[in-house]
User: Fold these one by one.
Assistant:
Number 1:
Amino acid sequence: MKFESFSRKVSAVIFACSVFSCSAFGQPTLAERAERGEFEALLEQAANNQVVATLNVFFGRSDLNAELTPLARASRACSTDGARVASGREWVLANARDTKVLMFNENHYGLAERVFVRTLLAELLAAGFSHIGLEAMDHDVVKMGGRYRPAADFYTREPTFAALIREVESTGFEIFGYEPSIKQSDDLDAAERFALRESGQANNIQARIEAAPDDARFIIFAGWSHIAKQPVSAPGGPGKWMAARFMENTGIDPLAIDLTACAYEAEHPENWQGRILLGEDGTPLVFGRDAHAFDAQIRLPVPPRDHPVATGFYRQTLGQAVGVPEALRPDDKPALVQARKIHGPDNEVAHDRVLLYPGEDPSLYLVPGQYELQSHRGDGEIVGRKRMLVE
């Protein structure tokens, strides 16, 4: 199972609308509480380890997820027999040239996929792609000041996802969300909810394509099995996910690339090229239970478990390493340190954040500019502030 059960096991209130983003009876959303630094209660109250993993990523500690079980994660032991290893980046750029719709998936409590897609954006734009659709946003999310902001949802407030959105905006893509925003009836069973959601996603993407110029080309970034082109595991048995329904509706055959099943250990990320395994005839080799449902599979780098800067392996793409000032580090209790640009939009999310435990000294990763750093205790209280210039 691709852990769509994540959204079924967490409370119905949290998932009444877009994941983590709905307000319950006027109370702050989980996203708002997380960004306010209320890490202690959120981690303690998490319904299962998948929620803990998602929060760890939000708080800059994806390295802590290595100890959580059971979690679906990319395997470091996928076969390489009979394969030729090539650059995943180069393969995507070469094979997406004549593709109307290019689909990637991500692990919602991972970072590698967000980083990989971000590094491709400029070249995909140059290749003719013009729109990008994000499952992480509702289809009716409104623009603020003429632009989409990372604060529009939960996943997009995580710093590497926020960086992806900023890159999308700066490069000139038209960005849209396609997650259905209607509340589902409590009378529906799991299979009916699944079908309604997948159909809604497919319909929303179709509508954006039909409203766009004929020469528009689309990138779709989704979670897990949503880009499966053939039936795979789903509530009630094998079912058609978004991509399969989209194909039926439109007759468009997307290029669906799995980024979630296999990985390789790397001390350095090789500029996030990724690796693709090819057979003797150049055909992509795809591994895993749902291999039949994807066109290709790219393996992304993961740090060895004893990597000296595991907390920053993915976050290093956000900027240069900057030490957390001594005054903001925890003494005997954990602290969440967040860095926001001074004079940025009021609703802008942190450029980076990291949860520190006593005795730890991980870095923040920042581009040049002026920042205000805030240190939070577990209940969200701000216990320290410091301005910093990164040159």
Number 2:
Amino acid sequence: MTPPLRVASLLASGTEIVCALGCEELLVGRSHECDFPESVKDLPPLSEPKFDIHLDSSTIDATIKSLVSEALSIYRIDGEKLRELNPNVIITQNHCNVCAVSFDDLCEALAGLGLESVEIVSLEPNSLEDVWNDIRKIALALNVEERGDELIHKMIGMMDRVQSRLGEMGKSDEFLPHRDAISHPNIVCIEWIEPPMVGGNWSPTLVQYAGGVDLLGKAGEHSPFIDWETIALADPDFILVMPCGFDIPRTRLEMKPLLAKEVWKNLRAVQDGHVYLLDGNQYFNRPGPRLVESVEIMAEIFHPTLFDFGHEGKGWERLYQKI
């Protein structure tokens, strides 16, 4: 007789996917970052960071680089709690050793625990297409493959409806910009503030779905560090600030040193009041079901006369009015 599924998710987006598939009751443990839906907070956390997450962005960056240079893990997994919960499916990731508990972290923690017949589902979302594949992976592991296909179809349909409203023609994976230049603004997405990093992976594709043109990020490639001079040369129409792991109040605090830089003051987006703070933690940096809301947030920002999904104040805020 097949034992009932007991799922431990060490990845916030993985937890959201499990819940979106209608399988929340299978979860027995979560990562320290899993906080959506609200009910998953009742599950025991199985991980914690080895650094103070309340440090400023430049100090966090230096701390992480120091740990990595010493070949040390950034996260700690509670092996004893894992043994006690005895999951037979564990969700982790092999995309970024900095963003969340990695596949290698998990394998090290599992060594010697005596857990038998554990299926490890390792996600690697380098692009939006990979997100669809990861949903399929989880659905397969949970024996709900049909629900996985339905979830993907629903998400793609919601994104396609945004493009349809913009007058798009053809399939959404072949982006055709609007004729009106105002309708396809040039965008730079800031995924880390100090040192600056621009959004890659799935972010440029989300920008396209919302009717914008990402100037510096490349779809399917990891988010690169960059300098402010390069951003100044790009001189985008809109700047979206959505640091990985930060909510909007935290992002606003981190912006203070940046606002004093001359290179910042001279940017067209700054002078035109087109700088926006986005909740990167809840939306853009979680490759799961709420990427749909991420497209809606961008669409509201780029095309305020066309879209009002009600995300302002929760998913995004304007940094300041035109100066």
Number 3:
Amino acid sequence: MKEIVVRSEKSYFVSFTDEIWKNIYKLTFERKAVIVAPKSILSIIGESLPSSVLVIEVEEGEAQKSISTFGKALEKMAAAKLDRTCLIVGIGGGATTDLTGFLAASYLRGVDWVAIPTSLAGMVDAAIGGKTGLNLEAGKNLIGAFHSPIEVLIDYRFLTTLPDRDLKAGMAEVAKCGFIEDTEILNLIDDDWHENLNELVYRSIAVKAKVVSSDFRETDLREILNYGHTLGHAVERHSKYSLRHGESVALGLRFAAEASYQFSGLSTHERDRHDQVLDALGLNSKYPKVCWPELLEIMRSDKKVRGGRIRLVTLSALGKPTRAENLCDEDLERCFLESIGE
């Protein structure tokens, strides 16, 4: 198996396999195990798991990242009398691995877990880096912990089962990695992103592994992975999650490119390159301008806000992230209207 190492509070491998079901059986056979997965995934696994495995079925999508789901899962684990030698395996999209990681961080103050992402966004973003958490009514990912898995298993074949909408949405996170670090990703998207999908996934994971290994707890460098996410998360929540995470991030990337142009020295060509790449992926380009006051209010709950001031990750050039600090509301609104507001 090919591997990428992630060095954080502990080192672990992102392993690429075409024998995922054998891997899952081995993981759950060797120690007392819990599988956390939505019904759509459990129906694929079927009867292949050892009878001793505790299976916790969760909702599809962002609905599972709730205090209610989290609490019910913990109660099931406690009722099963699982001890600190247990293993929790999360199989699903980014929401599932976010939830699973936080269960592992919280149960008995920390147990081992393995992430098996089945979505493109999960593979290149959510499952890598040890960020775990839940959503609150006040905002996305406001509860959580840094708790790395002991391994991440990637099977490209899951990508062949994704609806086209989910595949395109996941490509927003891939494009982000191209904008902030590995610009060859942008060329591979231009060339034929469907044909180059496996390489794009590998390169995107390598970008995230490099950044996370340098700054596990997001004290500085790791913030660059949030490029496009300040507005993206606000749009996602404002849409009541009717927009996929990646669809919302695509809007955030266009907004961030405009902010980078206006405040961080990004060239006109490089700003327009964002639209070119995201348009080629068929990703969202507009959001109703009448929603701006509500979006701004949601953005104020972003984790990067300091002293009530919204801070943005921006670019001074492609592959060169920086920050825009102390932006006033009028600055932000202008960037919104000149990029995605309609």
